[in-house]
Design goal:
Elements: E1 21-25, H1 30-45, E2 49-54, H2 59-64, E3 68-71, H3 86-102, H4 105-113, E4 117-121, H5 125-137, E5 142-146, H6 170-200, H7 215-224, H8 229-232, E6 233-234, E7 243-244, E8 249-251, E9 272-274, H9 290-305, E10 312-316, H10 325-336, E11 342-346, E12 363-366, H11 371-375, E13 380-383, H12 387-396, E14 400-402, H13 410-420, E15 423-425, H14 432-441, H15 444-461, H16 464-470
Parallel strand pairs: 1-2, 1-4, 2-3, 4-5, 5-8, 8-9, 10-11, 10-13, 11-12, 13-14, 14-15
Antiparallel strand pairs: 6-7
Length: 477
Amino acid sequence: MRGDVTTGDATKGDDATRSMTILYLSIGMASPLSMSLELCRRLRDRGHTVTYASHEDLSDRVGAHGHHFIRLHDPEPTSPIRLRRALADGREQCRRRRASIDDDGPVRLLDAVKPDRILADVEMHVAILKLIEPARTRGIPLLLTMAIFPVHPAPGRPPLHVTDPPADGAPGRRRLRRKWRRTRLERTHFEWKQRLARWRRLEPCPTVGYFCFDVDDLRDVARRHGVDLGRETTRRHWLRPFMYTRLPVLCWNARELDWPQGSPPEELPQNVRYVGPMVQRPRFAQDHSDDLDEEFRAWRRFDSERGADRPLVYASLGSFWAGDVDLLRGIVEIFARHPAWDLVLGLGRQARIDDLGPLPPNVLALPWAPQVEVLERADAAVVHGGVATLNECALLGVPTVVYSTGFVEQHGNAARIGFHGIGRVASTPHDIKPSIRHVLEDPAYRRRLDALRPSLERYAQQRVALGLIESAEVLPA
């Protein structure tokens, strides 16, 4: 498979496609869930039926979008060993660990749902490893979905968590090779810290739940369920603890937003494909709850009362940040000093509105903002570098100011936005104010976004993701 958009399977047999039952295994994180709901909406519009499954309770969110939901039950965590009865506690830990590894909950899903296709978040490792062999023997294609950019190393390609641009030439490539080596050493160091922490907690044999990223636990799961990790995965990628090498991986991003191809052209691994951004439009009205309805109404009131010629800026640090209230206060202060600009501030439920102090009339702070709806009206956005938000801004034509919080891959995402000229990277909080002014006043950002948008929309128009799912084949033995 190549890294371009077009595919012979993407539009093949549009009228003859039979209805299929899709089983989607979700890790439960907010951003991947939103993107998966857009993919599943497209599948449903094609006449397919989708059933979600997760160890997290997603019934309300999934049900609001018209999909069935099945809960996967995680094992109860083990307790630390008490020294006075170490032998009995140790035996109990081992027994519960074996039971969690032997649990065939994902396999029972196949009997209950009888799917024609299985989709799974790429980090749903325990469920994936338990399903590889049963899916193959039952003739069910298993595909993985990945919210982040491709993670494979290549000449001149930096790791996903650094701010470096791609390198062209021997000195730059040597520098990036050193960063890749350091990344692998940090992975090894982290894994040994995990092992040591188990013994310090007197918990050498914990149960293995679905939200598991420990390589030792996953090796045990793979061994018990007949999966050869050396054949199915590789550890020479950026993603911790490993990446799959044979299962098809659908990357919810656009090739046009990644680094440019090298010379000779850099190819993705054969099993990885860009399938374009997955952005729900509209999204907020479908996520029903009384709190969300009130926040949506507050946004509508604020939007109706502001002047039509006033610039609107959206700001959010996502739902995984550490709660830097001082940074939020600083953003509010920028707009207090510029009353001609309007701000909608989404807190991601990581801070309280009261923590921000008195708000000027041109600022609306919401615990959970209707992000897509606000971005459809916004002139600029101040964001943290999460890939879902950046995709939404690019697809909706909103110039961005990216102040990366350094969480997971945000540095690499910010570097891509700056490289393509569709936003500015704020290295410090003091850079946010001039960056906002720059993207609001310079029309070049809008022009570049307008030129980019047709390429991003083409993935959905050509049904790249749907074509790959519908034409998927069973993993060979």
